Amino acid sequence: MPYPGYMEESIRKVEATRQRRLKETFPRITLEEKAPLLQKFHPDFIEEGMRKLLVGPNKGSRTPNEMADVLEGNSRIDPDKIDLLRIDYDVDILVIGCGGAGASAALLAQENGADVLLVTKLRLGDANTVGAQAGTQAADRPNDSPAIHYLDTMGGGGFTNVPELVEVLVRDAPGVINWLESLGVMWDKNPDGSIHELSGGGASRLRLHSARDYTGLEEMRVLRDEIRNRQINYLEFSPVIELLMDDKGQVAGAILVNLETNELSLVRAKAVVIATGGMGRLHIQAFPTTNHYGATADGLVLAYRVGAELIFMDTMQYHPTGAAYPVQILGQLVTEKVRTLGAQLVNADGEQFIMPLDPRDVVAAAIIQECRRGIGIKTPTGEVGVWLDSPMIDIIRGSGTIGRELPAMVRQFGRYNIDIITEPILAYPTLHYQNGGIRINPEGATTVPGLFAAGECEGGVHGRNRLIGNSTLDIFVFGRRAGRAAAQYVKGVKLGSLRLDHVRQWQRELERAGIAGSRAISPLLLPDYASHMPDYLPDYGRQALAVGQIKIA
Amino acid sequence: MAEARMIDIYIMGSRYQVPEGLTILTALEYCGYRMIRGCGCRAGFCGACATVYNFKNDPQLRYDLACQKTIEQDMYLVQIPFFPAAKALYNLEEVEANGEQVLKLYPDLVKCFGCNNCTKTCPQDIEVMWFMSDALRGDIREVAIKSFDCVMCGLCAARCPQGLVPYNIALLSRRLYGRYLAPPSKHLEDRIAEIEAGKFDAEIEELRKMEQSELKRRYAGREIEPAY
Ligand SMILES: Cc1cc2nc3c(=O)[nH]c(=O)nc-3n(C[C@H](O)[C@H](O)[C@H](O)COP(=O)(O)OP(=O)(O)OC[C@H]3O[C@@H](n4cnc5c(N)ncnc54)[C@H](O)[C@@H]3O)c2cc1C
Ligand code: FES
After folding, report:
1. Residue pLDDT, tens place only, A492-537
2. Does domain B6-79 correspond to CATH entry 3.10.20.740?
3. Which residues lie with the beta carbon below 6 Å from any ligand 2 atom?
């Protein structure tokens, strides 16, 4: 199903302005223009979409309603029904979640002498990591430096980032690229071995390391294979539903559930690393998402209940270019690499309205503005979007570039008979990334003893807005750090007896706030799309997206 | 909005009516199947949703990713969320990047008789049989390049009459290529040495301690390398 006729007409306008636009550079947004644009059009600023938390360590902080619903949720367990003496796994370190962060933490923890158990909700590597397309930042070219990377990252985050975290992020980055290569990751390279690096939104140097447009897949399949080769113990389809503590107030393990049989198991661990990734499947403000099926902010819920502090929970990243057509792939990612390679964003009249490589929050807000102004393009199913002029890429960089650099995108649209080499892509912002998360220090330690966090579930590194390529960097930098630090930490820990008093206390707090009866249970584990209408069909989908519960225990 | 047209599909033999335009994955959900296995990225990258289908009046089997394939009238479908597959264990630091090594870890490779089922099955349109013959010849680079877009959905292994696991052979080859055969990056090595020698410490320290107004000024005035 190629574009319908009336959309083709709009494409003719895009083509008509293309020659002129090839020579045209839209100015970058100034700091003065940025604030009003964001305030008017960015979803983070929609007041009805947000509320203040009524309980927990961040009581009083603003967060999206859907996030508040899970953070304020009821526990899935009744502590009185759990036998804490029946321990199924007794290990040094429990790593929760096997995306890039969890895999790195598990590898480093094992390398540093710890006995590790890795548990994950779906299969090993079913994670946001596998979907990363564009690449990973590291300042390793001669005209670049970690200091410039630092400046770009702080600026992208609105200067709100935690400086100590940014410092280790940029400093560790080249080492991470090298580590991944030593494990067999195939970076895109020039014939002389130098890495073929690309620019990215908000970055002032060409700094993106990619593996075609399958960067995260390549990183993940290598790490997953390494976990197997090193025979690290792992459990699939076994999400954590609650953490355990001991009588000294240390985190001491977790309760898992087998998703298929509902059987519970208890893990005792001297340290726990949370690496559960993002929240896209909470569908904040009913946005579609790029995230994988299990991205339901579970780690935040688990950490919050044992008293860990969260940071920047009022800011989510909406990727500027989710697919707006065809409906089968609504909200799926159209990688920023398309813009990096030269594609401009244009409205129904074929005119540019934003510098395509401005930071993501700005570009997303500008697209929403353009569509509200009525100069977006409406699809037959009622979605709106603007054109991402992909054919420019081959014109600028030579024919064959798109096929070589963006095989996943060519394939994805090709399935629906859209050839992105000759026709533009219709795009609209999609829920993509959780900028904030669990507060950590540079070693990945949270504010609770024995609890570490790494990857998308932690916050502070990116401030209020993450740059492209800095998350697949974050997960390896902080995954490795957390794994190593946890292995050090467990050498000095003596666990007391296991406790679930924090869960009792939590339930009492919900009662006191008067919300125990009205909140659902959490962590959510999986969204419930079954027998609800799919979220992308505007006829019935949007309202029906009341995410359900899965019956467990 | 016009109502979507309803079409018939058959899930594990049972008939359902679903609106046109869904993918196999969303059609399963529409019918009330709550996915646990068989669903990962929902975007064509993870290979969790391998699916086999044919049509009521056309027995020819076809293969695809459920999250990407649009349903069609009279489709008969079933998912293959898991398929047992051999994976060799190895220590990448101790293996050599040559064909003998691949053969040693996957000796059954020689049993490939070129039936081409793997290629016909691949939802990514990878030339699986060709890279298997490259592997047999010991051309690791070719295997790595040809197999690069593999999402490891396992369909090739499910269809191989000889029980081979092309996707794991490809993974081994890519790791060998990335680790040993890809030319090293001098600029990366240099940069790591510079960082270890503390070359950027003072500059980062300065930025870290800088007044925010000054940091903003630096940011706004920073030189931007052209994207191309
Ligand atoms: C489509 C897409 C494209 C992207 N492109 C880029 C890019 O080009 N560059 C970039 O830098 N970043 C990119 N990002 C962001 C980046 O990929 C992610 O932020 C990052 O990979 C997250 O890694 P992670 O290990 O923290 O989490 P994930 O990779 O999501 O892993 C989390 C793991 O935890 C598991 N889990 C969740 N809950 C539980 C539980 N209760 N118990 C047990 N396990 C659980 C999950 O199943 C999963 O395996 C992209 C993201 C997406 C979705
Ligand atoms: S669910 Fe990941 S490829 Fe289909």
Report:
1. 999 999 999 999 999 999 999 999 999 999 999 999 888 654 455 4
2. yes
3. B 39-42, 44-49, 65, 67, 151
Q: Are strands A233-235 and A116-119 parallel, antiparallel or unpaired?
A: parallel
Q: Kindly list the catalytic residues of A.
A: 319, 339
B138 reaches A (C-beta below 8 A)? no
| CA A96 / ligand 2 centre spacing (Å) | 22
Residue of chain B nearest A220, judged by CA positions: B46
For the purposes of burial, counting CB atoms within 10 Å of the CB of A488, is it exposed (0-12), middle (13-18) or buried (19 or more)? middle
pTM equals 0.95
Could you report the average pLDDT of every consecutive run of 10 residues in chain A (553 residues)?
Answer: 89 97 94 93 95 98 97 95 96 98 98 98 98 96 98 95 98 98 98 94 94 96 98 98 98 96 95 98 94 98 98 96 94 93 96 93 95 94 94 96 94 94 97 97 98 98 95 98 98 97 97 94 92 50 36 32
| DSSP string computed for B130-169 | HHHHHHHHT-HHHHHHHTTT----SHHHHH-TT---HHHH
Confidence of residue B3 (pLDDT cuts 50, 70, 90): low
Helices (H), A112-247: 146-156, 163-182, 215-229
User: Can you name the residues that pair with A96 across neighbouring β-strands?
Assistant: A119, A274
CA nearest B90: which of B112, B110, B106, B70? Answer: B106
Contacts of A131 in chain B (CB under 8 A): 41, 43, 45-46
A333: containing domain = 5-41+319-431
In chain B, what are the domain boundaries?
Answer: 6-79, 92-181, 186-220
* Domain final position from A380, A414, A431: A431
pLDDT of residue A545: 37
φ, ψ (nearest 5 deg) of residue A388? -110, 110
Are A423 and A440 found together in one domain?
Answer: no
Q: Which residue type sits at B30?
A: Y
Partner-chain contact B195 A150, CB within 8 Å:
no
Q: How many domains does chain A have?
A: 2
Residues A158 and A191 placed together within one structural domain of the fold: yes
CB hemisphere CA count around A137 (13 angstroms) = 28
Asked if residue A68 belongs to a domain, the reply is no
Angle at A284 between CA A32 and CA A30, to 5 degrees: 10
Residue A130 alpha carbon, nearest atom of ligand 2: 2
In a domain, residue A60? The reply is no
d(CA A40, CA A466): 20
Residues B192-224 have pLDDT tens digits of: 999 999 999 999 999 999 999 999 999 999 999
Q: What residues in A contact B166, CB-CB < 8 Å?
A: none
Q: Residue A509 domain-assigned?
A: no
In this predicted structure, what is the pLDDT of residue B88?
A: 97
Quote the CA–CA distance of A164 and B5 in Å, as a whole number. 56
Domain of A361: which CATH number?
3.90.700.10
Residues from chain A that touch B144, judged by Cβ atoms under 8 A, are: 186
Phi, psi of B76 (to 5 degrees): -105, 125
* Correct CATH for B92-181 of 1.10.10.10, 1.10.1060.10, 3.90.1150.10, 3.10.180.10: 1.10.1060.10
Instruction: Please report the pLDDT score of residue A200 as a whole number.
Output: 87
Q: Packing angle between helix A146-156 and helix A163-182, nearest 10 degrees?
A: 120
